[in-house]
UniProtKB/TrEMBL annotation, chain A:
This is Peptide ABC transporter ATP-binding protein. GO terms for molecular function: ATP binding; ATP hydrolysis activity. The gene is oppD_3. Its main location: membrane. Belongs to the ABC transporter superfamily. It is found in: Cell membrane. Keywords: ATP-binding, Cell membrane, Membrane, Nucleotide-binding, Transport.
From TrEMBL, chain B:
The keyword Glycoprotein does not apply. Keywords: ATP-binding, Nucleotide-binding, Transport. The keyword Transcription regulation does not apply. InterPro entries: AAA+_ATPase (IPR003593), ABC_transp_ATP-bind (IPR050319), ABC_transporter-like_ATP-bd (IPR003439), ABC_transporter-like_CS (IPR017871), Oligopep_ABC_C (IPR013563), P-loop_NTPase (IPR027417). One of its GO terms (biological process) is transmembrane transport. This is ABC transporter ATP-binding protein. Residues 5-255 form the ABC transporter domain. It comes from the Bacteria. The lineage of its organism: Bacteria, Bacillati, Bacillota, Bacilli, Bacillales. Belongs to the ABC transporter superfamily. GO terms for molecular function: ATP binding; ATP hydrolysis activity.
Length: 324, 330
């Protein structure tokens, strides 16, 4: 069976005055219909650039320089600008982190939802409005008809994110990319929004790529997880495997460094050092300078993702030792 | 033991712009009537969602923001009554670590200058001694002496937060107010800073007020925890009490809303709070939380609950604190 989305060896680079920045450096993964893949990583790990590459939104000085992105078997990198535009918002949608800056402040939210329908389905004004109001209702906005005529600044952060979800899902996309959808929200509102995304994606059998730095959100939402570090996927497995048998030292370190809400601890485990500089291409493993397992070999040759169990991919020379 | 810091009925109002000529303009109560005490050597965590008044509270205690009413007693002295030189002296004992390590360091000053400035202002050290003191502070927060010659932009977020902490430490304060000191940092760096704060506390016998929206980090660092909602403290107790026998329904919901990094704990049934924070310019009558509270009764709509001692050392502002409710079969 072919996958809904198949990304192979994606490379996205940025030209900077200081050299080439390898933001995404040979990333591969798949997403099936109805499945949620979480891409998790810290700032600069390349998770957002990966999603922008899929959406065809990487702009100068960035460029997708290698690999392929197969959506329903078709390589998105070969699409013309116009073909891409017809695809975005219809077959592939996105929810961004900041609902204030991703909505247009000078149009009503209703207009912004119906615009999608009028563009992609050529609906007339009345039909589009009808459908937009239904959609506002679906995303849990009370008084949908009134809210239809409001401007983004009149709504709270949680409401705006609901409007973003309405815009993203009104065309029933096959793939939804949610890029830090709840990072700007309070925890009680976050819980509402995550529940909503999960419910709607299930109903429409949407494939979801959830991009986040919050491992708690990953554990609640994901079926599969890809952990990114320095522009590469270092571990890729089912959500249970990632949390219960983490096999890359970075994944382990990240999990161990989280303060626990159910335990009292005297000290947190902390990874030494900081995230790598992507301008320098390293011979060896990008994580080696921060890794307590690292040996000479790790500094010399780059590890590749290798199977370490059923559907459990790890990019580490010492994966077996790490796993213990 | 006497408290190091006592806050009494502290209030901050922001007047609203007038509408028309006659109408009363009204005011937003950012913080209304907060009472609390911090004992020497302890860490009081203040937790709440955006707009609950936790940062306003911290800024008022440091007098970086003028309160509308109330008292801030630091070692028994009312900080709101002192001015000029006396205030400057009082502030030596009370320092602040800010959330954003990018905007809270002067980009035109070298790191060593940033750390030396408070000591120069207070005339604590000069010349060689000052240099020595700066390198001691750099070391205390895990930076090298050479790094003192660089400018803030050359450092990562976590390192900048270390610089901010060194600056706060430079006057040898008794109390440090940390306002969301790790929210802007990456996950793996947050643990480094939390550990550092704990180490420094032990070494310098510091007292902390740690303001954050993240319950897991609050649990790690705090001895006692105060939960704020819409400008008021709704629950305050020791960490153990909050996590083992929560009394206020808002705290309960907050605890349940935190996503746990363990997929086997995916909760099928949990309380997800409906609705959003009410408008602070027009707060609900009675208990401010009644509009979202799953247990609210008529009484909650009418009568505002006071913060009362439900168990020894455990205060909650709720007509029906959670344990009692179970006993009474509500």
């Amino acid at each position: 069976m072919s996958h809904l989305l198949e990304v192979n060896h994606l490379q996205t680079h940025f030209k900077t005055p200081d050299g080439i920045l390898r933001a995404v450096n040979g990333v591969s993964f798949t997403v099936d219909a109805g499945e949620t893949l979480a891409i998790v990583g810290e700032s600069g790990s390349g998770k957002s650039v990966t999603s922008m590459s899929i959406l065809g939104l990487v702009s100068d000085p960035g460029k997708v320089v290698g690999g392929e992105i197969l959506f329903e078997g078709k390589n998105l990198l070969r699409l013309t600008k116009k073909e891409y535009r017809n695809m975005r918002g219809k077959a592939i949608s996105v929810i961004f982190q900041e609902p204030m800056t991703s909505l247009n402040p000078i149009f009503t939210v209703g207009f912004q939802i119906s615009e999608v329908l009028r563009t992609h389905y050529k609906l007339n004004r009345k039909a589009a409005k009808q459908r937009a109001i239904e959609m506002l209702d679906t995303v849990g906005i009370a008084n949908a008809e009134k809210v239809y005529a409001r401007y983004p600044h009149q709504l709270s952060g949680g409401m705006r994110q609901r409007v973003m979800i309405a815009i993203a899902l009104v065309c029933q996309p096959k793939l939804l990319i949610a890029d830090e959808p709840t990072t700007a929200l309070d925890v009680t509102i976050q819980a509402q929004i995550l529940e909503l995304i999960q419910k709607l994606a299930k109903e429409q059998n949407t494939g979801v790529i959830l991009i986040t730095h919050d491992l708690g959100v990953v554990a609640e939402m994901a079926d599969k997880v890809a952990v990114m570090y320095g522009g590469e996927i270092v571990e890729h497995a089912s959500v249970e495997q990632i949390f219960h048998r983490p096999s890359h030292p970075y994944t382990q370190g990240l999990l161990a460094s989280l303060p626990k809400i159910h335990e009292d601890e005297q000290r947190l485990y902390s990874l030494p050092g900081t995230v790598p500089n992507l301008l320098e291409s390293s011979e060896g493993c990008t994580f080696a300078p921060r890794c307590k397992f690292a040996s000479e070999a790790c500094l010399q040759s780059k590890p590749r993702l290798a199977l370490q169990g059923e559907q459990h991919w790890v990019s580490c020379l010492k994966a077996e030792e790490v796993r213990g | 033991m006497k408290p190091l810091l006592e806050v009494k009925a502290l209030t901050k109002q922001y007047p609203l712009p007038r509408k028309g000529f006659r109408k009363e303009s009204g005011a937003v109560q950012a913080v209304s009537g907060v009472d609390l005490a911090v004992m020497p050597g302890e860490t009081l965590g203040i937790v709440g969602e955006s707009g609950c008044g936790k940062s306003t509270l911290g800024l008022m205690i440091a007098r970086l923001l003028e309160p509308t009413a109330g008292q801030v007693l630091f070692e028994g002295k009312d900080l709101l009554k002192v001015e000029g030189d006396e205030l400057r002296k009082a502030r030596r004992d009370l320092q602040f670590v800010f959330q954003d390590p990018y905007s809270s360091l002067n980009p035109r000053m070298k790191v060593s200058e940033i750390i030396a400035e408070p000591m120069q202002i207070h005339g604590l050290y000069k010349g060689v001694e000052l240099t020595k003191e700066v390198s001691r502070l750099l070391q205390a927060v895990g930076l090298s002496q050479q790094q003192g010659d660089r400018y803030p932009h050359e450092f990562s977020g976590g390192q900048r937060q270390r610089i901010g902490i060194a600056r706060a430490l430079s006057l040898n304060p008794k109390l440090i107010i940390c306002d969301e000191p790790i929210s802007a940092l990456d996950v793996s760096i947050q643990a480094q800073i939390l550990n550092l704060l704990k180490d420094l506390q032990a070494e310098y016998k510091l007292t902390y007020m740690f303001i954050s929206h993240g319950l897991p980090s609050i649990r790690f660092i705090s001895d006692r925890i105060a939960v704020m909602y819409l400008g008021r403290i709704v629950e305050i107790a020791t960490k153990q009490q909050i996590f083992s026998s929560v009394k206020h329904p808002y705290t309960e919901a907050l605890l349940q809303a935190v996503p746990i990094p363990d997929p086997s704990l995916r909760k099928k049934e949990r309380i997800i709070l409906r609705g959003e924070l009410p408008n602070p310019a027009n707060p609900p009558k009675g208990c401010a939380f009644h509009t979202r509270c799953p247990y609210a009764t008529e009484r909650c709509q009418q009568e505002q609950p006071q913060l009362i001692e439900v168990e020894a050392g455990h205060y909650a502002a709720c007509h029906y604190p959670l344990d009692k409710r179970k006993e009474e079969g509500h």
